């Protein structure tokens, strides 16, 4: 505990070539290598360059490697041996890790450690400057740096300020940088390297991840994990206070906090109170935030980064998303997803209480709530009753001028 309490007394390691100051010696080495060191490792097959030997090995193996690691029990194939080990352990492994304090079972040792810490862990890390408490040491470090850290990284071209150096780099590249990353197989152009990698995997990647229980196929590994958990996962997280059940642990955490938790997050500038931390952040940004995203091509201004990106793409962008099964074309990726789901998706969601059928899961939830649901949201100031939470919020604002959270 004392190591955490004395987090501000760490020795500082300044960079001799710039103003960077690190609290750990290995962080300084990493900074020097990335910012001031020469590029050391080049790919002999393409233009890929990196400062890390292990990154080059991974690149050569995944992009140019002929070696394949095949699962002996199914059709799974990968060019990365750790992925095969993980696959064999999760899909075909008999080894299971059981929690000694509850019924939790997993095939991943790391998952058990995380579960023990979150669910049964007694160790807590407290902030010495405020009431923040967490069970994760990394979360405390992140909190200390973002909330109480004295080091700030300022943009030389605008008023952008952050306590995270990677955020400044990304801001410089996207807002003021001239560097562009172009796709070699189509007209896609972006200023963010991560976006290009994601684009290559989704649209041109040859690697496919197949579901062993159905015909689902994707080029994105996280999508397969999500599919397996939602569609075929046997693990369920149940609320101890009500009938709420979910296949996502984070959904249970949010449910416990919002429905049964006593913790409240209060706005320091007004009377707004909520049980959801994300709602407080959204409130601070909309009501009291000074940050604005302005379009350089027109008068559009917004406080939401997502809205700004969508505006740029739809109004001024040349990128188009085309449907592979018909002539539908749009500038909005979300619209294409909605179109694919509504027009060409074979998956259907049927109501168990009537003949209603839809290709959209959210539509089914909406139908269940309106037609068969018993949940009602009541106004505390009058007799207004509705099945829609958004309608109650709108009513509270229009009729009673209140922005307080509706319960």
Description:
- The chain contains 15 helices and 28 strands.
- 42% of the residues lie in helices and 14% in strands.
- By secondary structure, the protein is of the alpha+beta class.
- Among the domains are: 347-375; 377-407.
- The strands form 14 sheets. A two-stranded antiparallel ribbon has the order 1-2.
- Strand 19 (265-266) and strand 20 (273-274) form a beta hairpin.
- The radius of gyration is 25 Å and the shape is globular.
Structural class: alpha+beta
Secondary structure: number of strands: 28
Distance between the termini: 38 Å
User: How much helix, percentage-wise, in residues?
Assistant: 40-55%
- Widest β-sheet, arrangement of strands: 1-2
What is the count of DSSP helices, taking H or I runs of 4+ residues?
Answer: 15
Spatial shape: globular
Radius of gyration: 25 Å
Specify the biggest β-sheet.
2 strands, antiparallel
Task: Report the uncertain regions.
Answer: 1-9
Q: How much strand content do the residues show?
A: 5-15%
Please, what is the average pLDDT?
Answer: 77
């Amino acid at each position: 505990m004392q190591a955490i309490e004395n987090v501000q007394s760490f020795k500082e390691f300044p960079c001799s070539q710039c103003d960077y100051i690190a609290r750990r010696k290995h962080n300084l080495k990493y900074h020097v290598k990335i910012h001031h060191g020469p590029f050391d490792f080049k790919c002999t097959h393409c233009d890929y360059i990196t400062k890390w030997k292990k990154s080059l090995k991974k690149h050569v193996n995944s992009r140019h490697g002929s070696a394949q690691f095949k699962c002996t029990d199914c059709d799974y194939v990968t060019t990365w041996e750790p992925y095969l080990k993980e696959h064999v352990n999760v899909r075909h492994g008999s080894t299971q890790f059981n929690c000694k304090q509850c019924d939790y079972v997993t095939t991943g040792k790391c998952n058990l450690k995380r579960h023990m810490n979150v669910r049964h862990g007694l160790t807590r890390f407290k902030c010495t400057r405020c009431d923040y408490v967490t069970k994760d040491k990394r979360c405390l470090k992140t909190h200390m740096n973002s909330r109480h850290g004295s080091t700030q990284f300022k943009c030389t071209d605008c008023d952008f300020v952050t306590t995270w150096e990677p955020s400044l780099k990304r801001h410089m590249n996207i807002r003021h940088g001239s560097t562009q990353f172009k796709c070699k197989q189509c007209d896609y152009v972006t200023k963010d390297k991560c976006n290009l990698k994601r684009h290559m995997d989704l649209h041109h990647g040859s690697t496919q991840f197949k579901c062993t229980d159905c015909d689902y196929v994707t080029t994105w590994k996280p999508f397969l994990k999500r599919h397996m958990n939602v569609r075929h996962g046997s693990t369920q997280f149940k609320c101890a206070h009500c009938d709420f059940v979910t296949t996502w642990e984070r959904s249970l955490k949010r449910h416990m906090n919002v429905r049964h938790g006593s913790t409240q997050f209060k706005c320091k500038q007004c009377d707004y109170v909520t049980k959801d931390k994300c709602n407080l952040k959204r409130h601070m940004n909309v009501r009291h935030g000074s940050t604005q995203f302005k379009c350089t091509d027109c008068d559009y201004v917004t406080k939401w980064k997502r809205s700004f990106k969508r505006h740029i793409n739809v109004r001024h962008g040349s990128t188009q998303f085309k449907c592979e099964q018909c002539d539908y074309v749009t500038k909005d990726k979300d619209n294409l997803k909605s179109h694919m789901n509504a027009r060409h998706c074979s998956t259907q969601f049927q109501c168990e209480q009537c003949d209603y059928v839809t290709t959209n899961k959210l539509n089914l939830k909406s139908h269940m709530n309106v037609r068969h649901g018993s949940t009602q949201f009541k106004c505390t100031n009058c007799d207004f009753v509705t099945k829609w939470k958004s309608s109650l919020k709108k009513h509270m604002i229009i009729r009673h001028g209140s922005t307080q959270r509706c319960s």
